[in-house]
Design brief:
The chain has 155 residues and is an alpha+beta fold. The protein contains four helices and five strands, in the order E-H-H-H-H-E-E-E-E.
């Protein structure tokens, strides 16, 4: 269930302060690997079917062009999910239930029929004792996911 109150204002930030997840430049010295995924033409359609995210710019070239895009794009959460799965494999994490945090910045759209390359760097251990990894992704060579962070409880 969700509640929505329209027109309200607040003088303070809501919720806890979120942990930083910027990709530090020195992490580029700790790259553990990368994975390139071939994104099929129908990826957005398949994702729409399971997520109920039927954004027109992800399913129709004309709708995407109407929004100033060259062609249909992948849904953002679809792109992030593909990145998350690549991070698991590159880092050899194993158990998906160990994921405690997945954060990223959407820097540009990712596109069907273009390879998605995810690069992963080791970040050490968080104050909570979780393994921390930084990642970035490129769609057809263009940075589409930046400042990615994945944290895993491997205890």
């Amino acid at each position: 269930w969700s509640s929505l109150f329209i027109g309200g204002t607040t003088n303070s930030l809501g919720g806890p302060v979120l942990a930083d997840h910027r990709y530090p430049e020195d992490a580029r010295q700790r790259i553990i690997g990368d994975e390139t995924l071939g994104v099929p033409l129908d990826q957005a359609f398949r994702y729409a079917g399971v997520s109920n995210d039927h954004a027109p710019h992800a399913l129709d070239d004309d709708a995407a062009r109407h929004e100033g895009l060259p062609s249909k794009i992948l849904q953002g959460m679809c792109t992030l999910a593909l990145c998350g799965s690549a991070v698991f494999r590159v880092a050899d994490v194993g158990d998906p239930n160990s994921l405690r945090r997945l954060a990223a910045r959407f820097a540009a759209p990712a596109f069907p029929k273009r390879d998605l390359t995810v690069e992963v760097a080791e970040m050490g251990t968080t104050d909570d004792g979780f393994r921390s990894l930084a990642f970035e992704a490129r769609s057809g060579g263009t940075l589409c996911i930046s400042h990615g962070r994945a944290e895993f409880d491997l205890s």
